[in-house]
Design goal:
Blueprint: E1 16-21, E2 27-31, E3 37-39, H1 51-60, H2 65-72, H3 76-88, H4 109-120, H5 133-146, H6 160-170, H7 180-187, H8 197-214
Antiparallel strand pairs: 1-2, 2-3
């Protein structure tokens, strides 16, 4: 019977043995030298070796998240989840806001200092964060005030992918149904909208659909 040589992708060792199967039914292997578990085949493209490097390369060359996902055959959520820590590696000096124009939705640094610890409590990471959370929060306030799309955030704010990733984490409700973003907006004295333009549009559509159903519109009539 023909056999194939399986090499560990981590340490390049050849002391490899079968280590059960994944949920997808694909054979898994384990290296005796470094104890690394791996597969030779993957059903989902994002799990294949080298995909994360391709995401970074496409992003650095100006490719958007949708274009990157379409080219690599992976979801937009996967692309954003990978890019969020990557964008954090850019030097904080590029996003300190020293050269950014002031917007009516901005809060000052003193106000932000009162809510900074609250916002920091959401993200716990072993590596230092280099993005300026003040600039990210001001970008979120701008988006709430104007209702613009994520891609149309002014370019002097941090990358919209980074802002979206932080907003998504800050906006997750706790066991009481209240998000960190809601508490931060209340504590900072924010008097503007607390939903993005997309959230407001969805709310209006849901209300309109509920009103139509209440008046019997859209229901099939019996013959």
């Amino acid at each position: 019977m023909a056999s194939i040589l399986v090499q560990c992708p981590s340490c390049k060792g050849e002391q490899v043995y079968r280590h059960g199967k994944a949920r997808s039914g694909i054979q898994r292997y384990r290296c005796r030298d470094c104890h690394h578990c791996f597969q030779l085949e993957y059903r989902y493209e994002a799990n294949k070796p080298g995909v994360t490097d391709k995401i970074s390369d496409l992003s650095m060359n100006g490719s958007g998240v949708r274009d990157t996902g379409r080219v690599l055959g992976i979801s937009v959520t996967t692309v954003i989840a990978h890019l969020e820590p990557v964008y954090d590696l850019f030097p904080i000096l590029t996003n300190t806001g020293m050269n950014r124009k002031k917007y009516a939705s901005d809060i000052n640094r003193e106000q932000f200092a009162e809510i900074e610890l609250l916002l920091r409590s959401v993200r716990r990471s072993t590596k230092p964060t280099t993005v300026d959370r003040y600039e990210v929060f001001c970008a979120v306030l701008y988006l709430l005030r104007t209702g613009c799309q994520w891609r149309f955030l002014p370019s002097d704010f941090p990358k919209w992918q980074t802002v979206y990733a932080y907003w998504r984490k800050w906006n997750e409700p706790d066991e009481h149904g209240v998000s960190v973003l809601e508490r931060a907006l209340k504590k900072s004295g924010w008097r503007g909208p607390r939903e993005t333009g997309a959230q407001r549009l969805k709310h209006l559509l849901d209300c309109g659909r509920a009103a139509c159903e209440a008046h019997g519109h859209g229901r099939s009539e019996g013959l």
